Amino acid sequence: MQYISTRGGGEPLSYSETLLEGLARDGGLAVPAVMPRVDGETLERWRALTYPQLATEVLGLFATDIPREDLARMTAAAYASFPAEVVPLRPMGDGLTLVGLSEGPTLAFKDMAMQFLGEVLEYALEREGRVLNVLGATSGDTGSAAEHALRGKERISVFMLSPRGRMSAFQRAQMFSLDDANIHNIAIDGVFDDCQNLVKELAGDLEFKRAQNLGAVNSINLARITAQVVYYFWAWLRQTDAGGATEVSFTVPSGNFGNILSGFYAKQMGLPIRRLVLATNENNVLDEFFRTGVYRPRSAAETLATSSPSMDISKASNLERFIFELVGRDAAGVVDAWRGLATEGSFDFSAEQPRFEEEFGLVSGTSTHTDRIATIRAVHAGTGELIDPHTADGVKVAREHVEPGVPMLVLETAKPEKFAETIREALGLELEYSPELRAMLDAPQRVTEMADDAHALRSFIEAASLKGDTVRETPVGADRHDS
């Protein structure tokens, strides 16, 4: 299996090479040269597998350069701390089922991919005798999931950008309380899109990227996308274990288009998915695109701070991978679209908009603060379940797209404990934290605050990064302060 860029530049790469590369050298994103296919007989053969075993089979279709026994060892290690089922399905009534993706160490769905990514990154680096300085941006959950997966890794340093003051108190504590020498938290004056732009600018500087051994763990990293494909197969298998409907729909709360892109890939691989329902919050650029075909990201000033903060995103990086498929895998079409985006602030595929649902099964909807509060209350009253605000966005939009005889699976985003203020507003409940979580919330927080300044970020990384083939085991203390 080889991987190519959405913008047509460079030579095809293997899975491991793509893993370490991050953003492609021409500024595009890595995609499979040919999408693997799974037939009905294979699906039935997979039905008896455990989650780590299924992950080995699915990821084995993509990571063909990694020996199967090594892949099996890594998937077993990645999910060893999860409950036995790893991803439980919980019926919610009215045709909806919740897909439990928040059983990992940071209580968010990002752990499902990050725990595997931590294993496979370390494996690839050791195999090649290299080090990697991971540069990422987070709107809330990616950062903590990445840091908890990569903390203490001798060949990896993490530089994680987050928008100052835009995450929940729990999300900040999960990241900023870590004191591992290889973890560097940087709070940027701006919104998530500003953080993401800084990542893209530095990753697009090939000389700096090579000199500093930069890589990425955001959802632009294809390994994360492929690891997320697994739970779509798992959820379909568990939903259809008892027979009945073979085609299901999924609703996915989405900000950066990474999670739902994994579902899109699963559908392309042959998984019987009828609809992929994209749910946004008030920052509904993606909903506008899938309803109209016009993609018009908003400025930082126009990006709202909401009660589902992990979706407070206006520029969805992974949309480029969908556009690549929409234009018939024509890299020139992608380049033209992104040139228009840079010059005009938008691109227009309204002529292709009917294909979104007819050909690809993609539909969308928006949820507001009022909606998510009402949904949290309704779900709790009807089922006793507590759901976080992002999942509530998903449930609200899912209800608008339920079809008779077609199970609707809603992907859980995080545990409600991460968003206690919203739960308090919705239900008047004070959530109880375990002693471990309380200790984390009370721990000193270490973070570097920085202007939205690429030069300052370059200087910071140059001073603190792992160099060449050396492995740093001592902390860099001068570049952090307690807050």
Architecture overview:
The protein has about 475 residues and is of the alpha/beta class. The chain has 20 helices and 16 strands. The strands form four sheets. The protein has a six-stranded mixed beta sheet with strand order 3-4-14-9-10-13, sandwiched between helices. Helix 10 packs across helix 11 (about 260-270). The termini are far apart.
Question: What is the straight-line distance between the termini?
Answer: 46 Å
Question: How many strand segments?
Answer: 16
> Reading side by side through the largest sheet, how are the strands ordered?
3-4-14-9-10-13
Number of helices: 20
Helical content band: 40-55%
User: What does the radius of gyration come to?
Assistant: 21 Å
Main beta sheet = 6 strands, mixed
What is the topological layout?
Elements: E1 3-5, H1 15-21, E2 30-32, H2 40-46, H3 51-62, H4 68-78, E3 89-93, E4 96-99, H5 111-128, E5 132-137, H6 141-150, E6 156-163, H7 169-176, E7 183-188, H8 192-203, H9 206-211, E8 214-215, H10 222-239, E9 248-253, H11 258-269, E10 273-280, H12 285-292, E11 294-295, H13 319-326, H14 331-344, E12 347-348, H15 353-358, E13 362-366, H16 369-383, H17 389-399, E14 408-411, H18 420-427, H19 435-442, E15 446-450, H20 454-464, E16 481-482
Parallel strand pairs: 4-14, 5-6, 5-8, 6-7, 7-15, 9-10, 9-14, 10-13
Antiparallel strand pairs: 1-2, 3-4, 11-12, 15-16
Helix pairs in contact: 3-4, 3-10, 4-5, 5-6, 5-10, 6-7, 10-11, 16-17, 16-18
